[in-house]
Amino acid sequence: MPPPGCQRPSKTQKPFHEQELGGGGVPAHKWLFMASGRLRLAVLPEDRLQMKWSESEGSSLGYLVQVKPMAGDAEQDVMLTTKAPKATVGGLSPSKGYTAQIFRLTGSGTTLLAQREFVSKSLTPPLEPSRRACAWGGAGPWPCSGWSSPEPPVASSPSQDPPTLASPQFRCTPPTPVDMIFLVDGSWSIGHSHFQQVKDFLASVIEPFDIGPDKVQVGLTQYSGDPQTEWDLSTFGAKEDVLAAVRSLRYKGGNTFTGLALSHVLEQNLRPGAGSRPEAATAVILVTDGKSQDDARAAGRALKDLGVDIFAVGVKNADEAELQLLASRPLDITVHNVQDFPQLGTLAGLLSRLICQKVQGRSRAPVTSTAGSPSSPDTLFTPTSLVVTQVTSSSVHLSWTPAPQLPLKYRIVWQPSRGGAPREVVVEGPASSTELHNLTAGTQYLVSVLPVLRAGFGEGLRRLVTTAPLPPPQALALAAVTPRTIRLTWQPSAGATRYLVRCLSASAKGQEEGREVRVGQPEVLLDGLEPGRDYDVWVQSLRGAEASEARGIRARTSTLVPPGHLSFSDVSHDSARVSWEGVSKPVRLFRISFASSDGSHSGEAPGNATSATVGPLSSSTAYSVRITCLYPGGSSSVLTGRLTTRKVPSPSQLSVTELPGDEVRLEWTAAAASGVLVYQIKWTPLGDGKAHEISVPGHRDVAVLPGLRSHLEYEITILAYYRDGARSDPVSLRYTPPHRSPPSDLALASKSPDSLQVSWTPPSGHVLHYRLTYVPASGSGPEKSISVPGLSNHVTLPNLLAASKYRVLVSAVYGAGESRPVSAIGHTAACPALSPDGSLSGFDLMAAFGLVEKEYASIRGVAMEPSAFGRARTFTLFKDAQLTRRASDVHLAALPPEHTVVFLLRLLPETPRETFALWQMTAEHSQPVLGVLLDAGRKSLTYFNHDPRATLQEVTFDLPEVRRIFFGSFHKVHVAVGRSKVRLYVDCRKVAERPMGEAGSPPVTGFVMLGRLAKARGPRSSSATFQLQMLQIVCNDSWAEEDMCCELPASKDGESCPAFSSSCACSSQTPGPPGPQGPPLPRVGSSGPQHAALTRPGTGSRRVDFSVLTRFSPLPLFQGLPGPKGERGEKVSEAPVQGPGASWGVCGRHRPRATGHSTWPHGPSALQGEPQSLATIYQLVNQACESAIQTHVLKFHHESARAPRPILQALGHPSSHGEAWLPGRGGRDGPHPEDGGTGPLAGGVGATAAPSQSPAGSSVWPRHPLHPPWAGVRRQGP
User: Fold this and answer.
1) Which of 9, 15, 384, 1066 is deepest in the core (most CB within 10 A)?
2) Which helix (H) or strand (E) holds 1217?
3) DSSP one-letter string for 430-466
4) What is the maximal distance between C-alpha atoms in the chain?
5) How confident is the model at residue 697 (pLDDT cuts 50, 70, 90)?
6) Could you tell me which residue ranges the VWFA domain spans (predicted)?
7) How open is the CA angle 1225-1226-1227, to the nearest 5 degrees?
8) What are the DSSP E strand ranges found in 936-1065?
9) What 8-state DSSP symbol labels residue 707?
10) How many angstroms separate the CA atoms of 616 and 595, rounded?
């Protein structure tokens, strides 16, 4: 049957041997052409047939070659695979007919490429009979190579299928002895099932050989991680025994260390003691299925140098390149590779023939010379009988029998059989011996003796030589032993240059590292040892890197005095006190160990102690206690005693406390100070109720038991489990829970961004107090609890997170326990109320920064002044005041995207011309995220914020209306921020509108600052000087359209804005006496007018000091020269002149003030303010006068804990000195000075208020909120 994909020719076709090549007239037995290729046959020497064909078109996996005899012949077929388009087979019978078929291998199968029938003798003339076959005693075709031929031999490829083997009649009986060693791979990659196929293969290879003591000997070594000799060459003398040993071979398993295995063959299997015969030809057959995990080249080369023939058989995943490095030459005979283990059976017969051929040619039979057969010229110089004597650890003596004819010289070469650099020496031709020196002890060497001829080297001798090991030290003896030292001596070793001494405690068991010391003399002193301990001491001889076997001795150091009389007291379930009698000698420590059947532990006590507490111990357990004295020089012997611990105790003093709802708290006294792992608690209603059970960690002494109904009686039981597995006796009590009512109608209301008002309806019964617990509903914050008196039914929770939900629980605590809690969820307000009726919500930043009358005095760098109109206060922020608050304190995180920033401010001459933030909010790293910037240099206003993606966005306004803000008057500004635009209002008039993206939420953390310079860095840096009356953020963007700007006198509408209230609550219905006549008003443009007064006709001729009015005028006025010295007023002893440290009290009363003179400040030159008409100036002055007349007396209430900080003022021209006097006494029915006239106009319209004392002997008038900063004057006193 042809192989798959092949078809026999049809009957109409001519036989293959009768077909002719088209057009050439060439006989069909010479050439054969087919559709896809061409086949060429040629007979080579040794009856070998060489086949060549044209390569096929397209991709292929190779070629399958099949040569089979004609039908009816008993010979087996030959099949092989190859990558190249050629192949060679041997052993063909010249007169028989054969069929050769070439198949192309593809991924889908095989395709017939070429076919031919032929007879060998018809192809070429017959060869000599002596070169007919490639093996002895057999017939039949088989692949062979290795002889010289017109064409180079063709070897099988790694994927080649082996040919069918020779017929069973083949037998190999070499004329000389043969030693065959099989080296079989037994690694895990083989597998049990495949290992059986390997054994069948070995048996088939061994079968043709004649086994016997004088014939063929067979040995076998199996290797994986380490090689193992299964049997030696001399183990079996009959073929049946060898085959039986192969069948019983056990699979080893492991790694693939081929190099180690070849070294094992060299060192163990080829020893004379293992049956190796010097005159026998030696062959090693390696069978492996993988690549070696170590370097096998050196061992393979050493074997081949000894004349050993190595055959390498690879299976499946074997590395063919490695096989070719290991095998002997020619490689096409010694290297074979099959695709899988089942194909090994077809290779066995071929391998038997090749081994037989190889060892036949390598026979070591002696060659004799006769007259009819002259000796080879090379053998005349070959020495014989290489003998090794006088073997030491570093040298050997070689001798040999010289050849009949002496060579010129002998070259002796030796190298370690495991690999290494070869060394050599040359001796003269007459010499027959030499010595090799400087060898390594215990090492196998391959030694070669080669005759040196004129034309090269002759046939030499080779032998394996193993040096003797380095002799170890002898006669080890203990010269002296003390508690800390051992002195050891021994006899010197021949060839040793030094000695290695190792000392290790005999009880170390691998836990301690031994000590090593090298000495040059045969003695050593080991110190630093422990007394009373056994030591193992080992000594080795050294010579360079070589070391001998170790010789050892055990020695024990002397002991020290132990403690006496061991006793026990205070024995509990987990500890005990151990006592002993001390010793007379100084003791460094006492080591105490205690052991039971479960294990042992140890501890130490000071050298002056006579007792110690040991633990933790297991309850009800017997212990063996051992005590040892640790002296400075070592340890004493051991004192031993026994004790038994007590049973574990139970918990005690159980008590029950009622909790809210259906829970109770169970408390107890701990069963023991330590050692309790867990408490098991069980409570069961009496009757048929279901039991409940919980476990509590052993370090706790309280537990909450849920689910106790008030109408049932319960039995509560507790017991303790200890760490050692012991369990205490249970302890029980009975308990009936009472009935407790909780509060009802729990309600939550938000009063501010950071507070909630909680209210409830009290329950019936006497409540001791309420327990109120609150926590953020998101679970992101800690839980807090407060206690509320039992008579209360509401409470306010402060300091909450703005715009956050809170879960509040309230329970009633009775004398008999606590009720179950009731709960509710409330939400803090996002924006607090700004107006009393709650119609306007937002954030008052003035209050947030403490810019209120009751708090400003504690703020550094801030002064307060009363306002001429209403009760508003003006706050001056001096340079570098840098007011800063944490954002979490202001709660701006709840600010909605639509809001309005409102501020009423005045910029001063001292205000820097660089950009500063009126107010701004920054992140934790001081990066601005929200605020309003003022630039006095460009006279512009900028609003900025972060959008929802945290991207900075800003809008800038620099219109003429905006520039008015920088001219020194008070102005009210609205920055209305919408979702898509920002509108600016100045003095309640819309100025401009700019597009802008929606604002993001301000950060929860960070800082809010006032007046910070744009170039400043850090949280505490430079800030600007300015005045504020208002700073708010309203939580809508429409407030600017509704605000009436009633704070501005020029914008005040009498119908929609209420009249300004007096800044002082007290008043007088009776006017004071008229003041002195002041000078007339100057004309505009005149220089240096004196202080003028406005006079209004009426009863009592009221007079208004014009210089006073200029101090609260919203517009700058022209200031004249200082007036003449006033008349000396009446002295009032109980009302001294205002001095430093004094302050005005409430209306009608004075606080104590220091006495002394005060001086008028110098007045500065007139400065240009906003360009306004003179008519406007008189109109505003008239409004101020009307307000003063209607309220009878305009009173300034400047109540301050400290005087305002002086600000930078420019000095005017020097003026005449005048003496300051107290105000005159009031009229007949008017208020008197002692009645508390405190304002600048107190005591009558024409009266003059005293200035505050300055540190330099001058005084500075308080600046009015609406008075330009340059309106103040300073005069030098007398």
Assistant:
1) 1066
2) none
3) T--EEEE-SPPTT-EEEEEEEEEETTEE---EEEEEE
4) 180
5) very high
6) 179-354
7) 130
8) 940-946, 952-957, 971-977, 981-986, 989-995, 1007-1013, 1026-1034
9) -
10) 12
Query: What whole-number distance in Å separates Cα of residue 158 and Cα of residue 338?
Result: 7
The interaxial angle of helices 239-247 and 192-206, nearest 10 deg, is: 170
Rounded to the nearest integer, the mean pLDDT of the chain is: 74
Whether residue 6 contacts residue 65, with contact meaning beta carbons closer than 8 Å, is answered with no
Q: Which residues have C-beta within 8 Å of that of residue 656, sequence separation ≥ 6?
A: 664, 665, 666, 667, 716, 733, 735
Q: How far apart are alpha carbons 395 and 389 in whole angstroms?
A: 10
Contact between 564 and 575 (Cβ < 8 Å):
no
Question: For 821-939, where are the E strands, in sequence order?
Answer: 822-827, 842-844, 862-866, 873-877, 883-886, 899-907, 915-922, 928-935
DSSP-assigned states of every residue in 1066-1106: ---SS-----PPPPPPPPTT-S-PPP-EEEE-STT-EEEEH
Reported as half-sphere exposure (CB side, CA atoms, 13 A), residue 695 has a value of: 7
SS (H, E, C) 203-230: HHHHCCECECCCCEEEEEEEECCCCEEE
Q: How far apart are CA 463 and CA 397, in angstroms?
A: 13
The residue assigned the tokens 């096929």 is: 56
Q: What is the DSSP letter of 129?
A: G
Q: What is the pLDDT of residues 1202-1254, one digit of tens each?
A: 333 333 333 444 444 444 343 444 444 444 434 443 333 333 333 333 333 33
- Tokens at 691, concatenated: 């039991």
- Say what percent of the chain tops pLDDT 70: 70
The pLDDT of 199-225, averaged and rounded, is 92
Q: Which of 974, 932, 970 is nearest to 1047 (CA)?
A: 970
Read off the pLDDT of residues 338-353 as tens digits, 9 standing for 90 and up: 888 888 888 888 899 8
Measured distance CA(1063)–CA(799) in Å, rounded: 34
**CA distances, 1235 to each of 362, 579, 1108, 1141 (Å):** 146, 92, 22, 21
Q: Are 569 and 492 in contact (CB under 8 A)?
A: no
Helices (H), 873-980: 887-890, 960-963
Residues for the chain: how many in total?
A: 1278
- Cα 433 from Cα 410, distance rounded (Å): 10
User: Would strands 178-185 and 216-223 be described as parallel, antiparallel, or unpaired?
Assistant: parallel
Collapsing DSSP to helix, strand or coil, 401 comes out as strand
User: Given strand 599-606, what is the order of strands in its sheet?
Assistant: 599-606, 589-596, 622-631, 634-644
